[in-house]
Design brief:
This protein is mainly α and 907 residues long. It contains 47 helices and 6 strands.
């Protein structure tokens, strides 16, 4: 309820205080809008109580204009004698007064308006004839105090124009609640509102986003017969659009007897706000078909936003041409909309040409140019443009910060943030969120701790979901999982917050805690926590990493249920999940069902074929992709080149042609990763001499990825010279990588230099490096059962070890002989065999034989490549037990059946 005071402040002490008065009764819509049920389709007071609870008078997060001496107590009492400065004579004011007031508004001349006011008072002009112009002028000049003073002087004989002017001015000056209260007071008098009064009160409702009060005002509009006034209908449409009720906007628009340009603009803007871009363009075309209407600048700007949002290149070009024909092209707001359109649908050359041709540029223009450069990945040019800006504000800094983060320039964003702090610029929630994300990109633990402390000192973090979510994400990216969990679980509100919940799931997945991610997803705190596409995509990725096929299918059903199956990102993740779980057919089916395919879609299904070592299928998809038109990226070409290493026939010549032409055909520079893929193909077809020649012709120094590919090729081809050369280069390039120490130790062990191998491991331990242990797991009864080498922690380990002893004996009868050359420890021969018998892959496969039904395939997952002895053992097991065994390791799938493997002993 509105209290006794009309505004939330007291009059300044300059005027003598009025005698004490009793406060007027509280005003409510129910006391003013006493209406009968109107025959109107809108839900007015039928569904909403007319006892409207007005918002609190304290308006947080909105700067108020200077206080004005205006209250309900003063309104209900006569003015003090020293305020009665005008007489009641009936002589009309001169026309010069009105002209001068209009001039003062046009040139923002406050002194001129006050001079006119003083002149009118000296001439004893009647306040009822000039007061409306004075109130309007003062409000437009931002002199709310003076406007209120003039209004108070006219309370003895007010009219509807004066009330409407005052209500409109208060609503537009940030005093929405006061405008509503004044409208209620006018309704208590005998003054009936007109169409301008309704536009004014609807403006206040719009700014308050008060849909319930808007319904009641709409009912009053219908009752009093103003529903046919175009201005009133436009205001109603604006209110419903602000409140997200597109259905009501459309109904008002359809029932309008007459429309103007504002009506069409409001309708188009409401549709664009709901991201219905095609419909907005159709409305624009309908508007053009009506001869009496021609688009204005606002129309063109809104339609260009629709074309940019819908990536409608042809439509945007047509709107641009239409604007030129209509003479709107040079205007600032249209040009700004064109920059946004060409950023999203054109090229950077289009944007630069438009920017350079603009005769007038404002801060929005420069900021959009920075956004354009960032969207095209031109970070340096964006920074140069920022430096050339004649004027900068917080939005400009935030745009540059956000662009750096989008382009992976976390440290650069942090440097810019330090400059903002040094200059004392205002830091808002958006700024701090970007900086926190930049810390996450840098993955630097110490910097993240410093920024975390700075955010808390600024008073952010507590009870701020956006900041807390960003902090949780930053901690997970910087290896601070304990702190992330503490922040997440410190209160029920954090756990039930959808943003924090999704961030924590992503954090678990990012740090390899896959089971924890699935557990958190399943234990959703309440049904109110919305499952968005990010959470779904993350959990689907976890299912793919674990090979959790059953749960992945359940997430698929959930995506279908909540309507996210049409999302391209979800479709891509589903395709990848099914392929990683061994269901290539399911992945292909999802891909075929997708309405649209982007480059990631093609990469996902091609990667699935490579996981199953089906190079010919991947190359068939590559041919279809070239015809479909999506532009390939570096990952696409890497997958296609790798596919030539899994084909049934030797197609190295085609691979060579593709590799040599990627720069001219696809505008993609060969990277070390692409060279490494080509080396892998050459190694598969035993063309190591050509691989050496490729080394000498490379335009840059090869990185460790390249040398690892060459090492694998030399190992598989048993070329010790190539392997030794590659190992030496890896050691030189990555001396601090734990895997490098493991490689050195293994090389020493394989050559029998046990003391050197032990020294290498000791050095590794001193530096705190740890080898990633070989882990195998199998999913049984919706639970992940993990095994490590000689692992006895499983609750059925006794049964597993007994069964594996029997299996080894049966396989030996069929010809299996343990290959102890892969045991890299200096121990006796019988101990080497003991190490081999209880490798993690053997334990997991044996557990699968014990727990799955007879005839069902056994599915085992590994985090590293399977060793040759386990590979040979499982081939014999498939013969002994007459079961198919499927193993997915770091190289792809191995399907063991009838003593053979699908990899043809090459991995």
């Amino acid at each position: 309820m509105l209290g006794a005071s009309f505004l939330p402040w007291s009059p300044p002490p300059r005027p003598p205080p009025s005698p004490p008065h009793t406060s007027p009764p509280s005003l409510t819509p129910s006391s003013l809008l006493t209406l009968h049920q109107p025959a109107h389709p809108f839900p007015t007071h039928q569904n909403h109580s007319l006892h409207h609870q007005s918002p609190s008078l304290s308006l947080p997060n909105k700067p108020k204009p200077p206080p004005i001496p205006f209250s309900a107590q003063i309104l209900t009492n006569p003015l003090p004698q020293n305020h009665a400065t005008s007489s009641d004579t009936d002589g009309p004011p001169t026309e010069s007064h009105y002209n001068l007031l209009r001039t003062s508004v046009r040139y923002n001349d406050v002194e001129l308006a006050k001079a006119v006011h003083a002149s009118a008072l000296k001439r004893e002009e009647p306040k009822t004839t000039l007061s409306n112009a004075l109130v309007s002028a003062y409000l437009k000049l931002g002199l709310t105090t003076d406007a209120v003073r003039v209004f108070r002087q006219c309370l003895s004989c007010p009219d509807v124009v004066l009330y409407s002017t005052m209500i409109s001015g208060l609503a537009k000056s940030g005093y929405e609640l006061e405008a509503v209260s004044l409208f209620f007071r006018m309704r208590k008098t005998e003054i009936e509102p007109n169409e301008f009064s309704f536009v004014a009160i609807l403006t206040a409702c719009n700014r308050l986003s008060d849909l319930e009060l808007g319904f009641q005002v709409h009912s009053l509009v219908v009752k009093m017969g103003y529903v046919g006034f175009t201005y009133v209908s436009n205001a109603l449409m604006g209110l419903y659009s602000k409140c997200g009720r597109l259905d009501f906007v459309l109904q008002v628009f359809d029932e309008m007897p007459e429309r103007d340009v504002v009506s069409w603009n409001t309708m188009i803007a409401a549709v664009v706000k709901e991201s219905m871009y095609d419909w907005a363009i159709e409305l624009f075309r309908d508007m053009q078909r009506v001869d009496e209407f021609s688009a204005d600048r606002f129309t063109l700007s809104t339609v260009l936003v629709a074309c940019a949002g819908g990536r409608n290149w042809n439509g945007g070009r047509q709107v641009h041409a239409h604007g030129i024909r209509m003479g709107f092209q040079p205007t600032l707001n249209v040009n700004n909309a064109l920059i946004d359109f060409y950023t999203k649908c054109g090229s950077i050359r289009d944007v630069e040409t438009l920017f350079e041709s603009m005769p007038v540029k404002d801060i929005i223009t420069w900021t959009e140019m920075i956004t354009a450069y960032m969207d095209f990945g031109l970070v340096d040019l964006a920074s140069e443009t920022f430096d050339m800006m004649p004027e900068k504000n917080c939005v400009s800094y935030n745009t540059l910060l956000a662009g750096c983060c989008r382009n992976g320039e976390g440290m650069r964003a942090l440097g810019l943030f330090c400059k903002m702090v040094e200059k004392g610029l205002e830091l808002d929630e958006f700024t701090l969120t970007i900086v926190i994300n930049a810390c996450g990109l840098s993955t630097d633990m110490k910097i993240s701790e410093q920024v975390h402390g700075f955010v808390l000192k600024c008073g952010f973090g507590a009870n701020n979901n956006c900041i807390e979510s960003a902090l949780i994400d930053m901690c997970t990216r910087c290896g601070r999982m304990d702190e992330a969990e503490k922040m997440f679980y410190q209160g029920l509100d954090n756990v039930s917050c959808p943003i924090n919940w999704t961030s924590m799931i992503c954090g678990y997945s990012r740090n390899g805690k896959l089971e924890e991610a699935i557990s958190l997803f399943c234990n959703r705190p309440s049904e109110e926590v919305v499952v968005d596409e990010i959470a779904l995509a993350t959990v689907l990725g976890v299912c793919g990493a674990l090979g959790y096929h059953v749960f992945g299918k359940q997430i698929h059903c959930l995506a279908l249920k909540i309507g996210l199956l049409n999302d391209t990102g979800i479709g891509n993740t589903l395709t990848s999940m099914y392929c990683k779980c061994g269901n290539l057919e399911g992945g292909i089916k999802i891909f075929d069902m997708m309405s649209t395919h982007d480059t990631v879609s093609w990469n996902s299904v091609m990667g699935g074929h490579l996981l199953h070592r089906q190079g010919d299928g991947a190359l068939d998809l590559w041919s279809k992709m070239e015809k479909a038109g999506p532009r390939p990226d570096e990952d696409t070409l890497r997958l296609v080149i790798s596919a030539y290493g899994y084909t049934n026939s030797n197609l190295v010549e085609k691979c060579r042609i593709l590799f040599l032409s990627m720069r001219t055909t696809y505008d993609i520079e060969p990277t070390p990763e692409l060279y490494a893929s080509f080396v892998g193909v050459l190694g598969f077809w035993d063309l190591l001499e050509e691989a050496e020649q490729l080394i000498n012709s490379m335009p840059f120094e090869p990185n460790a990825t390249f040398w690892r590919a060459l090492l694998d090729a030399g190992r598989i081809s048993l070329n010790t010279r190539i392997g030794a050369m590659a190992a030496k280069q890896i050691l030189a390039l990555e001396p601090l990588d734990p895997s490098t120490y493991v490689l050195v130790a293994n090389l020493y062990s394989a050559s029998g230099r046990w003391q050197c191998a032990e020294k290498t491991r000791e050095e590794m331990r001193k530096k705190g490096f740890r080898k990633i242990p070989s882990r195998s797991w199998i999913i049984n009864e919706n639970k992940v059962h993990s095994f490590y080498t000689r692992d006895e922690r499983h609750f059925q380990s006794r049964d597993i070890y007994s069964a594996i002893d029997v299996l080894i004996l049966e396989c030996m009868k069929s010809g299996y002989a343990p290959d102890t050359s892969f045991v890299l420890q200096d121990v006796e021969e019988y101990q080497k065999k003991d190490f081999l018998y209880y490798h993690s892959a053997k334990l997991a496969a044996t557990y699968g034989l014990l727990t799955t039904k007879r005839g069902e395939p056994i599915r085992v997952m590994k985090n590293v490549a399977i060793c040759r002895d386990c590979h040979a053992f499982l081939k014999f097991v498939s013969v002994v037990v007459r079961r198919e065994i499927i193993v997915r390791d770091s190289s792809g799938f191995h399907v063991f059946s009838k003593g053979q493997c699908s990899c043809k002993d090459y991995w």
